[in-house]
Design brief:
The longest helix is centred in the last third of the chain and has 19 residues, at 512-530. This protein has 652 residues and is of the alpha/beta class. Mean pLDDT is 94; it is low at 1-16. The protein has three domains: 7-135, Sandwich (Immunoglobulin-like); 160-172 and 179-374 and 441-513, Alpha-Beta Barrel (TIM Barrel), CATH 3.20.20; 402-440 and 514-652, Golgi alpha-mannosidase II (Immunoglobulin-like), CATH 2.60.40.
């Protein structure tokens, strides 16, 4: 609920107009960052009456009326008035209606031949789909996450551990006894928090919760940029979910979609009888792959709308970060288009200059107002400096998804181990560019849909080898420079490809290999969080050093991860074949005892139980440029982490 100041006039209490001249100036300039507090429907008192102030941007309309349950959806009874300042904003006060009232805007275009009923672009809550009306809503909520909010700056820092559990709330867990319904926000809160905490993830990333008409879009076809989907409860119910996760010490990242929007009649498309939010020319305003509309980032009011949406989730819902979807599609004018299907920029290039400026302004606004949060770009190309500051010429994101690492790594792991030695470069190439951006390594929902199968299904070999490969993949990934993201179900090796309208296959945890994989995930996250070398210098070249990347013949790589303190360094040894390697020599720079702190082949995880009896004494035998070496047993299809025991001399 927006609470406005009141003033006394001739003994009567009057609420000032929520939209000031300064608001209009900022809106038209494209810099207003809090439009949801000014546009939309807001409960206020005026002239002694409780009611709702409505305001909507429709500059090309001839008439706008508010329709709803309160007036029998009469298109003439509640007209709004266009402001005289040329802003295109229509507004008005409707008395004696309250919280929860359903409404839409009936818009008549200037030509008079186009009339349409639109949901509120700044609506705070929506009817339950497939109904499409907006609801007047008071966002009052008492938060209980002060402890988390006080320390989240450290949790979101670039040198903090970050392992992200990606979740689709509608299918994480369902109730088959009740017509397979999804859990509500409040029902899922304790279950999700317990699961994430037990597995040791630091953050959850929620696939879009912004209101969307088609459930099968997974939220990526957004119509309600200020409204959490009503499918799982009220705005306060979603706040309670975030609140509960925060109280459990878990950060919440929201998938946010400023790249496109659907053409549903009640949404943003052709809003006032013109292409208001999108470009009119389909070569700029229509996305050929997603069959959706593209925002006109060159329009000031559109930029203000999107920036306001982003900050709204940080302001009102205590969201800790935004993963910005489809950044590549925003940056390239020819994205998904053939020659002749796009319009070059003013310099003749394919870069979308307006989108570049919008993204920079967005990131500057986020880090200005919420410096303890983060933004993450899903950018799938080699666009430079995505996660570098705007003052240095970058786009200003905090981090970027490393799609190149993901593609190369999955291609490698899908190979039969016999052929892996011929593709050794797919393992090692990522280090050449690992520090050019602040990377997140994603194994996301995109890798387990559309016929791609599950992660466990991608792994070669018999069942035992499949699980050994998947444990190896996770251990290798968590040791690689960069933060980590895993889609739900991957933690226990879901067999079936993800289905948005079905629950995860929780029943497979009854089987030892699946349960063992989940135990491995839990111990891997615990080790990761306890070893600063695995996260403190993720984005600095001195946080990583090869021991040997040339052993393609045996498909083995060895490397060191380094933290701020030399004594924290960790040795990582990966064997990508099902062959046990005896007396495998690894050079190290320090003598003494090296403890085996993690081994993916432990029997508890479903492995064969081969290892080094807890550790190895270094020998004064030079190897791989180091003065000492370890003689190790490498288990089949395994990853091991080793660390010098406390008190060892030397510098690794």
């Amino acid at each position: 609920m927006i609470k406005t100041a009141t003033q006394q006039t001739d003994g009567q209490q009057v609420t000032p107009n929520p939209l000031s001249e300064h608001d209009i100036f900022l809106f038209k300039e494209g810099t207003h960052a809090r439009l949801a507090e000014k546009l939309g429907a807001h409960l206020i008192h005026r002239d002694g009456q409780q009611g709702v102030h409505f305001a909507v941007w429709a500059p090309n309309a001839a008439a706008v009326t508010v329709i709803g349950d309160f007036n029998g959806w009469d298109k003439a009874s509640q007209p709004l008035k266009a402001r005289a300042d040329g802003s295109g904003v229509w507004e008005g006060f409707v008395p004696e209606i309250g919280n929860g009232e359903c409404y839409k805007y009936h818009i008549t275009s200037r030509e008079g031949n186009h009339q349409v009923d639109k949901a509120d672009p700044c609506g705070l809550f929506s009817e339950l789909p497939p109904r499409t009306g907006s609801r007047v809503w008071d966002l009052a909520y008492t938060w209980n996450d002060a402890e988390w909010m006080a320390r989240r700056k450290a949790a979101n820092a670039l040198d903090a551990p970050m392992s992200i559990y990606e979740v689709h709330l509608g299918s994480w867990r369902r109730v088959p006894e009740e017509d397979n319904r999804s859990l509500s926000y409040r029902e899922i809160a304790p279950l999700l928090a317990d699961h994430v905490r037990e597995l040791g993830f630091t953050h959850v990333e929620l696939m879009p919760v912004t209101e969307h008409p088609f459930f099968g879009s997974w939220g990526y076809q957004t119509t309600g940029y200020f409204a959490p989907t009503s499918r799982q409860g009220t705005p306060q119910d979603f706040m309670a979910l975030v609140d509960h996760l925060h109280q459990a010490g878990i950060g919440v990242i929201l998938d946010w979609v400023p790249s496109h929007f659907p053409s549903d009649e009640h949404g943003l498309a052709y809003f006032d009888g013109t292409h208001l939010y999108e470009h009119a020319d389909p070569r700029q305003g229509f996305h050929p792959e997603w069959k959706s509309a593209i925002f006109n980032y060159g329009r000031n009011e559109v930029r203000a709308f999107l920036i306001s949406s982003a900050l709204f989730w940080l302001d009102k819902y205590h969201i800790d970060g935004l993963r910005v979807d489809g950044v590549a599609s925003m940056l390239y004018l020819d994205y998904g288009r053939k020659e002749g299907e796009w319009i070059p920029n003013e310099h003749g290039g394919r870069e979308n200059l307006a989108a570049m400026q919008f993204l920079r302004t967005l990131n500057e606004a986020v880090y200005r107002d919420h410096p303890d949060t983060l933004t993450i770009a899903e950018e799938s190309t080699a666009w430079p400096m995505v996660s570098r500051p705007t003052y240095a010429g970058g786009l200003g994101f905090g981090m970027k998804w490393n799609m190149g690492w993901m593609h190369d790594t999955l291609k490698y792991y899908q190979l039969d181990p016999v052929f892996r030695k011929f593709n050794h470069d797919k393992l090692t190439f990522s280090i050449w560019y690992a520090f050019t951006e602040n990377f997140v390594l994603p194994l996301s929902h995109d890798e387990v849909v559309h016929g791609k199968g599950s992660l466990i299904g991608k792994m070669p070999g018999d069942e035992w080898q499949q699980f050994a490969n998947l444990r190896l993949l996770y251990g290798h990934m968590w040791a690689h420079p960069g933060k980590n993201l895993l889609f739900m179900g991957g933690e226990f090796g879901q067999r079936r490809e993800w289905q948005h309208d079905e629950s995860l296959e929780w029943h497979v945890l009854e089987y030892p290999l699946h349960a063992g994989l989940q135990r491995w995930m839990s111990d891997l996250n615990r080790c990761y969080r306890n070893e600063p070398a695995l996260y403190e210098k993720d984005f600095s070249g001195d946080g990583f050093s090869w021991v040997d990347f040339r052993d393609w013949e045996e498909s083995v790589i060895t490397f060191m991860r380094h933290g701020h303190r030399p004594e924290d360094s960790v040795l990582v040894v990966c064997n990508f074949t099902p062959v046990v390697r005896h007396n495998y020599i690894v050079g190290v720079s320090r003598g003494g005892y090296w403890q085996e702190i993690l081994n993916s082949d432990v029997s508890l995880y479903g492995g064969s139980g081969i290892g080094n009896l807890g550790g190895v004494e270094a020998s004064p035998v030079a190897a791989q440029g180091h003065y000492h070496s370890l003689s190790l047993i490498l288990p089949p299809l395994s990853v091991m982490y080793l660390k010098p025991a406390a008190g060892n001399g030397g510098t690794p």
